């Protein structure tokens, strides 16, 4: 079985302290992202065409997470995703269940080598590693998030089990048939060329192993000819650093084109007792405060003040407003029934015997 610790390139990247370099590149990317989405800018007008032509605007993704990561951690926690909500449990419970469900469906076992595509700052990686005993490598195009992930892994005492590396999930630097599982949690929405990422997951998986994900998709209610639907989708994509979102039908079709056997799929937005968007408008708990009406405005006022005093980077106040607009449009898309950030699938790479 492949070891988490036997790849020299990764070992060097895991252990070195990159904070100074990351800070310099992050500062520049914040400025670039904010300039890109200035009202009436050429970049904004061409956004949909540009990202659709390229499938994934990788510079956009790096710029977006350079400005959003700290705000996400403050307002959401270490797991940057939604959860299926029940009246008798907390937001934190929903987050963990969302991750454990995926691990159980994939039948992850102790010492399995698993890839987390677009791992954020590693919250799901750490929870799934503790839950299943698997060894997990996160692949992330954002240098800053890789740095944050490994810092948090160290603090959690999980560096022997969880690591993050800088990489592109459409060009994985792993051997064919070398890993025991691949998953992605609300991360591969950053490309609309699903074949490019799903085919790589298929290539690196061992025969018989599972690929599972929670995806952001448009639903059957979305009408591409409806101007209001287009406006909502464009603004939620802008606020969440996304290319043009594909439908759930395209997700399933892409998995099949890439050779997967599709075992199961469903829209998580249709599950649970409470609407999924309740987590965006949370209550008055210590963590939930930042997602309340008052908390959002308090955060904005605080960032404006700190920016004027030179304590935080210029542009953070504007960045927070942009992220909030994205969240508002995502909720509106959910209430209209045209958008889901919680489409689940479980797929399997056929065994060697099945393909012979």
Description:
The protein has 356 residues and is of the alpha/beta class. It is 48% helix and 15% strand. The chain contains 13 helices and seven strands. It has helices at residues 8-15, 19-36, 42-54, 58-75, 91-105, 123-132, 143-155, 194-204, 227-239, 248-257, 293-308, 316-336, 352-355; strands at residues 113-117, 135-140, 162-166, 179-185, 205-218, 261-267, 339-348. A seven-stranded mixed beta sheet has the order 3-2-1-4-5-7-6, sandwiched between helices. α5 (91-105) crosses α6 and α11 (293-308) runs antiparallel to α12. The two termini are 23 Å apart.
Summary, kept brief:
By secondary structure, the chain is an alpha/beta fold. It has helices spanning 8-15, 19-36, 42-54, 58-75, 91-105, 123-132, 143-155, 194-204, 227-239, 248-257, 293-308, 316-336, 352-355, and strands at 113-117, 135-140, 162-166, 179-185, 205-218, 261-267, 339-348. 48% of the residues lie in helices and 15% in strands.
Task: Explain the layout of strands and helices.
Blueprint: H1 8-15, H2 19-36, H3 42-54, H4 58-75, H5 91-105, E1 113-117, H6 123-132, E2 135-140, H7 143-155, E3 162-166, E4 179-185, H8 194-204, E5 205-218, H9 227-239, H10 248-257, E6 261-267, H11 293-308, H12 316-336, E7 339-348, H13 352-355
Parallel strand pairs: 1-2, 1-4, 2-3, 4-5
Antiparallel strand pairs: 5-7, 6-7
Helix pairs in contact: 2-4, 5-6, 8-10, 9-12, 11-12
């Amino acid at each position: 079985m492949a070891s988490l610790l036997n790849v020299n390139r990764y070992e060097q990247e895991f252990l070195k302290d990159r904070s100074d370099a990351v800070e310099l590149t992050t500062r520049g990317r914040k400025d670039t992202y904010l300039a890109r989405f200035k009202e009436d800018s050429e970049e904004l007008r061409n956004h949909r065409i540009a990202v659709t032509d390229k499938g994934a605007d990788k510079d956009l993704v790096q710029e977006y997470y350079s400005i959003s990561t700290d705000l996400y951690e403050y307002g959401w926690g270490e797991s940057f995703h939604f959860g299926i909500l029940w009246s008798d449990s907390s937001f934190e419970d929903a987050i963990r269940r969302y991750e454990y469900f995926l691990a159980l469906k994939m039948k992850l076992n102790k010492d399995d080598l698993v890839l987390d595509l677009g791992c954020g700052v590693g919250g799901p990686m750490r929870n799934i590693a503790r839950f299943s005993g698997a060894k997990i490598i996160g692949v992330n195009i954002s240098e800053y998030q890789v740095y944050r992930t490994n810092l948090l892994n160290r603090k959690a005492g999980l560096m022997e089990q969880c690591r993050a590396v800088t990489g592109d999930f459409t060009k994985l630097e792993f051997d064919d048939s070398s890993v025991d599982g691949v998953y992605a949690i609300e991360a591969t929405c950053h490309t609309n060329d699903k074949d490019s990422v799903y085919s790589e997951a298929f290539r690196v998986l061992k025969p018989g192993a599972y690929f599972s994900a929670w995806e952001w998709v448009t639903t059957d209610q979305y009408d591409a000819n409806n101007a209001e639907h287009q406006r909502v989708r464009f603004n939620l994509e802008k606020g969440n650093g996304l290319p043009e979102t594909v439908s759930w039908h395209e997700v399933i079709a892409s998995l099949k084109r890439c050779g997967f056997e599709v075992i199961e799929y469903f829209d998580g937005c249709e599950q649970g007792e409470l609407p999924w968007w309740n987590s965006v408008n949370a209550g008055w708990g210590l963590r939930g405060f930042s997602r309340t009406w008052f908390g959002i405005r308090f955060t904005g006022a605080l960032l404006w003040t700190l920016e004027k005093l030179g304590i935080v980077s210029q542009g953070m106040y504007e960045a927070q407003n942009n992220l909030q607009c994205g969240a508002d449009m995502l909720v509106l898309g959910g209430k209209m029934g045209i958008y889901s950030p919680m489409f689940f699938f479980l797929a399997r790479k056929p065994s060697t015997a099945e393909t012979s």
